[in-house]
From TrEMBL:
The keyword Oxidoreductase applies. Its cofactor is FAD. PANTHER family: ACYL-COA DEHYDROGENASE (PTHR43884), ACYL-COA DEHYDROGENASE FADE28 (PTHR43884:SF20). InterPro entries: AcylCo_DH-like_C, AcylCo_DH/oxidase_C, AcylCoA_DH/ox_N, AcylCoA_DH/ox_N_sf, AcylCoA_DH/oxidase_NM_dom_sf. Residues 236-368 form the Acyl-CoA dehydrogenase/oxidase C-terminal domain. Belongs to the acyl-CoA dehydrogenase family. GO terms for molecular function: acyl-CoA dehydrogenase activity; flavin adenine dinucleotide binding. This is Unannotated protein. Keywords: FAD, Flavoprotein, Oxidoreductase. Residues 6-87 form the Acyl-CoA dehydrogenase/oxidase N-terminal domain. Pfam families: Acyl-CoA_dh_1, Acyl-CoA_dh_N.
């Protein structure tokens, strides 16, 4: 099997790297903690780079690419802690495209900014569709949905929604009285829609609480499997951002371990430091392998996509949590101060492992898929 990137994929990765290198994203991550106005709006960059149409089919004005291409962009964003608008717009565009929605071409072109309101598919632990709660560990029920022909009305609250505060369109998921999932697209300024931008631990994450109080929109003709795909795609994107941040943490820690001397020796020569850095590398490569599997499953084995994306999210979240802590430890006292960027990586790690169900939820899903016999089988 050839695991090398295609020419198109290399171009996409390099273009994303080039676009992000022109922006002071790390500086903005620090300054945004004190001044929200310092947070960079990367939407113009996303439009110029074509990220808004990555997952939209060519006949609807998009690039017609797959999850792995989106993952490559997310990795580059993660390397520089960029608040790239990926977690809200990309799953939304996927659902709009699969439903053949009239607004899909405008979303692909960046003329309309869409955001997806995350809803977790049922499992053996949570048998209903649920959403992240405003606080606490108990998940909240997904919004109630009432279907009337081609329209659908939603009532409920979805918290900690990525990119919703800047969106023109919201792709909502609700459940009918019979428990069936329904997707619909709403105008963010429609009657009954309240979007409340909220504080974030990682200043680059644009989050909002969205309340739907009898808000009516256009029903999207999607089945449960298509609706669930958006959840797992978001898991994969968060894992990819985590991988990018891990790569940077490894590079920075390794460079410092070579140049920092104590007792006449580079600190990298001490076993404790060496073992920690090697462990970052091991976790990094495990995450990378799983993300390759995600891209394969998305396009070729869709029945394994849930397992693949959940595994990548679980391993990637743990990798970034470990790398962020190890980066601080390698740098010693300065690593825990604002003189260094390590605390920004730590903040990204702690918020990433809690968003959209969190890494614990992904780990539970992996266990469920394996126990049910739906994991990978290569006869």
């Amino acid at each position: 099997m050839n695991l090398n990137l295609s020419d198109e994929q290399e171009f996409l990765r390099d273009a994303a790297q080039g676009a992000l290198s022109r922006l002071a994203t790390v500086e903005a991550a620090r300054e945004g903690l004190e001044d929200p106005a310092a947070i960079l709006d990367l939407w113009p960059t996303a439009i110029e780079a074509g990220w808004t149409g990555l997952l939209v089919s060519e006949e609807r004005g998009g690039a017609g690419l797959g999850a792995y291409e989106a993952i490559l962009v997310a990795i580059e964003a993660g390397k520089v802690l960029a608040g790239a608008p990926l977690l809200g717009p990309l799953p939304a565009s996927l659902l709009l495209d699969r439903a053949g929605a009239a607004t899909t071409a405008q979303v692909a072109a960046g003329e309309l900014r869409a955001a997806w309101l995350p809803a977790r598919p049922p499992s053996s632990l949570e048998t209903a569709w649920t959403v992240d709660p405003r606080e606490g560990r108990a998940r909240a029920g997904a919004p109630a949905a009432v279907v009337d022909g081609d329209s659908v009305t939603f009532s409920g609250t979805v918290c900690w929604v990525p990119d919703a505060g800047e969106a023109d369109l919201l792709v909502a998921i609700g459940v009918t009285a019979s428990g069936e999932p329904v997707a619909g697209v709403l105008e963010a300024g429609a009657a009954g829609v309240v979007v409340e931008p909220t504080w974030r631990y990682d200043a680059t994450r644009r989050l909002a609480h969205v309340t739907l109080n009898g808000a009516t929109g256009v029903r999207l003709n999607l089945g449960a499997d298509d609706i669930a795909a958006a959840w797992y795609l978001t898991h994969a994107l968060i894992a990819a951002e985590s991988l990018g941040a891990v790569e940077t943490a490894l590079q920075v820690s390794l460079a410092y371990a070579k140049e920092r001397f104590t007792f006449g020796r580079a600190i990298g020569s001490y076993q404790a430091v060496k073992h920690g850095i090697v462990e970052i590398l091991r976790r990094q490569e495990n995450t990378r392998s799983l993300l390759i599997y995600v891209g394969f499953a998305f396009s070729d084995v869709p029945e394994e996509f849930a397992y693949a994306a959940s595994a990548a999210r679980s391993v990637g979240g743990a990798a970034l949590d470990y790398a962020a802590r190890e980066q601080i430890a390698v740098h010693g006292g300065i690593g825990a101060t604002w003189e260094h960027d390590a605390p920004l990586t730590f903040r990204r790690a702690q918020l990433s492992r809690r968003l959209v169900g969190g890494t614990d939820d992904a780990t539970d899903r992996v266990a469920e898929e394996l126990l049910a016999g739906r994991g990978p089988r290569r006869d």
